[in-house]
Recover the amino acids of this structure.
């Protein structure tokens, strides 16, 4: 099996929020294009994550307007940057999540989304490693072979 790690995939770094952020601000940020989750950071460390599902559940359950810390998902299912993409997909499946914050040395590094994994785990894309440098066949590359991340 070919080993591709999380750090070789371009991680998105969505906007982050603080645990004291009002729910209305979190909802506004989640409405922005391409923002499906908001990692919650306190002093640079990941302490939770907020998704649209969290806000929908909050609205369905209460009329309150609490701060993010009151409804964020915690503990957060995370993954390290050296984990394989297969391991990341399995962790998402078993945890029932679509976004995995990437954490190294206790610090947030980015967000890996399920839709990002699809091309890498697809049978239509081949990835090999040559002298510790990843090579992959990618339909978007003119020559068909690309090197690097």
């Amino acid at each position: 099996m070919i080993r591709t790690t999380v750090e070789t995939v371009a991680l998105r770094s969505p906007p982050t929020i603080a645990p004291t952020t009002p729910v209305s601000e979190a909802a506004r940020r989640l409405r922005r294009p391409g923002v499906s989750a908001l990692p919650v950071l306190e002093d640079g460390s990941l302490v939770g994550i907020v998704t649209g599902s969290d806000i929908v559940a909050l609205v369905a359950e209460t009329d309150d307007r609490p701060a993010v810390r009151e409804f964020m998902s915690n503990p957060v299912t995370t993954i390290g940057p050296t984990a394989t993409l297969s391991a990341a997909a399995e962790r998402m499946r078993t945890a029932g999540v679509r976004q995995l914050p990437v954490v190294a040395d206790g610090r947030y590094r980015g967000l890996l989304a399920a839709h990002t994994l699809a091309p890498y785990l697809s049978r239509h894309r081949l990835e090999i490693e040559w002298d510790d440098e990843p090579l992959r066949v990618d339909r978007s590359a003119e020559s068909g072979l690309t090197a690097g991340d």
Notes: Helices lie at 23-30, 52-61, 85-95, 114-121. The chain has four helices and seven strands. The radius of gyration is 17 Å.
